[in-house]
Amino acid sequence: MGYYDRCQGSFFHPGGYELTKYALGRCELPKGAKLCDIGCGTGEHLALLQEEFGLAPIGVEPSAAMGGKAENIVEARGEATPFPDQSFDVVLCECTLSLCQQPQKVLGEIYRILRPKGWLIFSDVCGAKTQLVDSGPLKWIYAVEQMKAMLEEQGFSIRLEEDRTRDLITMAAQMIMDGRGQEICETMGALKGRDCGYYLIIGQKG
Question: What's the rounded mean pLDDT across residues 68-94?
Answer without folding.
Answer: 91
